[in-house]
DNA sequence: GAGCACTGC
């Protein structure tokens, strides 16, 4: 079966395609269907052969006589010059994309009215004494019936029965996540197969499963279970399975038609996580040949037409939520200093507004810490007595024990202010918030496929995000949201939605997964919002260089081995290569440490000297950052994974535990791909060669004045000051990544011998690349 | 001589 939904498009042009493919093979050594289509597409849109050359050069092809010739030939061979991009059109007479019957709509509207009234009643009905008297289970069942979704049970089931794909819009508090899978179970869907409900986050999958197992009065892991990385709490009995969407993607690699499932419910679809978006495309395809499977797309955004359009006009079913009104205030004029404005607003709310806690959205750790200091200082400066203000902070890198503080009760008569990053927008919910202060900014990652460079920059949030932030104040009562920008800039400067993750990330790993699933032409893959062609082609190019794809774009044996590892392909390649150098034991530790990210070392502001000293102790002998990370892991392991050791060495214990989990998983996977676990503790060269096998495309050589030039696509870069080699200036290095902050910095650097590049990647480097100029 | 939001397999 072919997954190329539009593969018929070029039929009849096979001769042209073959010709283009051959020429591309000659030009760049490999040629996948994507590159063929890309080149033909360029020629179609180009106005001249020179135009084709320009575009190809812009992509990264080296200028040469061959390239010019190719451009001229393809320009003359492509027979037609067209064509406005094909637009998807749908018959959509009423313009709502809603195929539900009128009666059903009315039924919904009626219920929305009812449930709005109910919200007020509910709060006052039950006294604590009464609820105590009831059995816990009875209360649970009663709770189920008071959820907004309850009255929709039958019409919802009917809609699911009648349509293969249904988009469900359920506001927060509607009960969709816990109830719909139970309704499906009660209606008999689980007799045909499991019901999966995917979540973007691990904790959500776990906690929802726990809740549902209580409601159904079964043991967690029996009929109701969850499955997340490192933890599969399911059994043969399991019929309702909550899981992370990434986990379902992994399962898809082993079971491409999801035969053991009868319903897939993709929850929190509006978040548009990379794995959710990939799932959309795959599920749409599965639904085509598995008419018995039901797909539910559940989103909390009112505008679900995009989901509906994508799934061929799937009907939209709306379930009301339970929310309180939120009053939104804008500033009259733009603020000069939003941090200052946020602090002033906190104090104003504290002094003038009725009780209720405050949530402030800031961009990062440093900002939060300085806001905390300023706020403390200002409060101490008040001459007269004011009610106590308890300052709490939360961001993901904050040690767990300090994170817990935001949930602790505070003295009566005092008020809590929580200074938070985006973590409080969706990932965690704090009760008792009545006021939100929103400067309208966040840090967002962007990825430039041309340079392969990531950068993290402060940018304006979207309208959707602003709404989500405001909503955080109206969960337990009416709320207020103070936006530190003008109503006009809200209207004109904020985008409607945050660009989906898939358009902001390095796609190498996604591309390898999709290729492993047998998708032949990724430019035709049905993405809801396609990533740029360039970003897909760069990913293919890298996978070819790594040996994961052959020269016509098919997955190789190495590629299949790599795809088994839940890692960035360069890390997977490093592991696969470690077999040859007999050092897989060391290399999986390094891969685990690298894949944890940059939160291994702990750098408190006031103990920098000690922290730096501790960090450098792992770099003895200028071994490079990769080996240093291995030293950290091994030292920790030698202390029997001691927490105390972590504190003494300024190492974050949470990150180390996560590295251990990943390492254990990788060790298990070695066997699956038939790589022996072998160690060579004293042969650093072997380890470095394995690293080079994964990261050869990230090589750089020393220039004057301590700067470096990357070898393949020349750019000037620098060693990040946190690197152990920052003062060492080795002549040749490989690096894990380049990040753009104040300069272009290479992170995680290791020295190498230039001849290794030619030895390890002869298809990528020639002697002339590494000889002295 | 810097400073990094949030997820996930």
From TrEMBL:
GO terms for cellular component: catalytic step 2 spliceosome. It is an enzyme of class 3 (hydrolase). Pfam families: DEAD, HA2_C, Helicase_C, OB_NTP_bind, WHD_HA2. Keywords: ATP-binding, Helicase, Hydrolase, mRNA processing, mRNA splicing, Nucleotide-binding, Spliceosome. GO terms for biological process: mRNA processing; RNA splicing. SMART domains: DEXDc, HA2, HELICc. The keyword Protein transport does not apply. Residues 338-518 form the Helicase C-terminal domain. It catalyses: ATP + H2O = ADP + phosphate + H(+). Gene3D superfamilies: 1.20.120.1080, P-loop containing nucleotide triphosphate hydrolases. Residues 157-320 form the Helicase ATP-binding domain. GO terms for molecular function: ATP binding; hydrolase activity; RNA binding; RNA helicase activity. Its EC number is 3.6.4.13. Belongs to the DEAD box helicase family. DEAH subfamily. PRP2 sub-subfamily. This is RNA helicase. It comes from Gossypium stocksii.
């Amino acid at each position: 079966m072919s997954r190329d939904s539009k593969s018929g498009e070029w039929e009849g042009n096979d001769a042209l395609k073959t010709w283009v493919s051959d020429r591309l093979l000659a030009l760049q050594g490999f040629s996948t269907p994507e590159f063929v289509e890309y080149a033909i597409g360029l020629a179609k849109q180009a106005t001249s052969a020179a135009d084709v050359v320009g575009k190809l050069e812009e992509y990264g092809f080296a200028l040469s006589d061959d390239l010019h010739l190719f451009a001229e030939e393809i320009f003359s061979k492509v027979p037609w010059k067209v064509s406005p991009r094909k637009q998807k059109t749908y018959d959509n007479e009423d313009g709502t994309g809603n195929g539900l019957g009128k009666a059903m709509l009315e039924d919904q509207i009626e219920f929305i009215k009812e449930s709005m009234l109910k919200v007020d009643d509910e709060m006052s009905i039950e006294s604590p004494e009464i609820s105590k008297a009831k059995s816990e289970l009875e209360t649970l069942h009663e709770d189920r019936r008071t959820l907004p979704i309850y009255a929709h049970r039958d019409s919802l089931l009917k809609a699911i029965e009648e349509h293969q794909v249904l988009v469900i819009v359920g506001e927060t508090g509607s009960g969709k996540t816990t109830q719909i899978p139970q309704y499906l179970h009660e209606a008999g869907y689980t007799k045909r197969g499991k019901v999966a409900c995917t979540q973007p986050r691990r904790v959500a999958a776990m906690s929802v499963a726990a809740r549902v197992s209580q409601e159904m009065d079964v043991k967690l892991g029996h009929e109701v279970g969850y499955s997340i990385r490192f933890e599969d709490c399911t059994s043969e009995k399991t019929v309702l399975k909550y899981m992370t969407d990434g986990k379902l993607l992994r399962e898809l690699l082993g079971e491409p038609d999801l035969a053991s499932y009868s319903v897939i419910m993709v929850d929190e679809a509006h978040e548009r996580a990379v794995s959710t978006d990939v799932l959309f495309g795959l599920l749409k395809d599965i639904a085509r040949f598995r008419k018995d499977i039901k797909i539910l797309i559940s989103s909390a955004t009112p505008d679900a037409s995009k989901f509906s359009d994508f799934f061929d006009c799937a009907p939209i079913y709306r379930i009301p939520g339970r929310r309180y009104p939120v009053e939104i205030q804008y500033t009259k004029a733009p603020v000069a200093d939003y941090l200052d404005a946020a602090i002033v607003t906190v104090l104003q709310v504290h002094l003038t507004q009725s009780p209720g806690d405050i949530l402030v959205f800031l961009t990062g750790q440093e900002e939060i810490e300085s806001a905390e200091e300023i706020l403390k200082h200002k409060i101490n400066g008040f001459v007269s007595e004011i009610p106590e203000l308890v300052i709490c902070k939360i961001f993901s890198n904050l040690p767990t024990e300090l994170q817990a503080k935001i949930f602790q009760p505070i003295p009566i008569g005092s008020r809590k202010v929580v200074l938070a990053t985006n973590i409080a927008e969706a990932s965690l919910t704090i009760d008792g918030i009545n006021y939100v202060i929103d400067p309208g900014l966040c840090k967002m990652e962007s990825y430039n496929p041309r340079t392969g460079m990531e950068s993290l920059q402060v940018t304006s949030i979207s309208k959707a995000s602003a709404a989500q932030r405001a909503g955080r104040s109206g969960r337990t009562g009416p709320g207020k949201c103070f936006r530190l920008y003008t109503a006009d800039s809200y209207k004109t400067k904020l985008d409607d939605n945050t660009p989906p993750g898939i358009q902001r990330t390095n796609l190498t790993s996604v591309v390898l997964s999709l290729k492993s699933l047998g998708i032949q032409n990724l430019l035709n893959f049905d993405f809801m919002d396609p990533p740029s062609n360039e970003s897909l082609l760069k990913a293919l190019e890298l996978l070819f260089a790594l040996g994961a794809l052959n020269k016509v774009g098919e997955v190789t044996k190495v590629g299949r081995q790599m795809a088994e590892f839940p890692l960035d392909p360069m890390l997977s390649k490093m592991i696969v290569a470690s077999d040859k150098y007999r050092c897989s034991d060391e290399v999986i530790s390094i891969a685990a440490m690298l894949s944890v990210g940059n939160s291994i070392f702990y750098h408190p502001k006031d103990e920098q000297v000690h922290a730096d000293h501790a960090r450098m102790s792992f770099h003895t002998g200028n071994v490079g950052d990769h080996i240093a990370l291995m030293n950290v892991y091994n030292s920790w392991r030698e202390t029997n994974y001691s927490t105390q050791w972590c504190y003494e060495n300024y190492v974050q214990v949470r990150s180390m535990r996560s590295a251990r989990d990943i390492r254990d998983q990788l060790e298990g996977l070695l066997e699956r791909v038939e790589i022996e676990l072998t160690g060579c503790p004293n042969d650093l060269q072997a380890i470095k060669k394995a690293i080079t096998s994964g990261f050869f495309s990230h090589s750089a050589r020393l220039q004057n004045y301590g700067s470096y030039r990357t070898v393949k696509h020349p750019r000037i870069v620098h060693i990040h000051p946190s690197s152990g080699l920052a003062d060492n200036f080795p002549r040749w290095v490989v690096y894990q990544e380049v990040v753009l902050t104040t300069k272009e910095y290479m992170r995680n650097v290791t020295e190498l011998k230039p001849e290794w590049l030619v030895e390890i990647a002869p298809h990528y480097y020639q002697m002339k690349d590494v000889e002295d100029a």
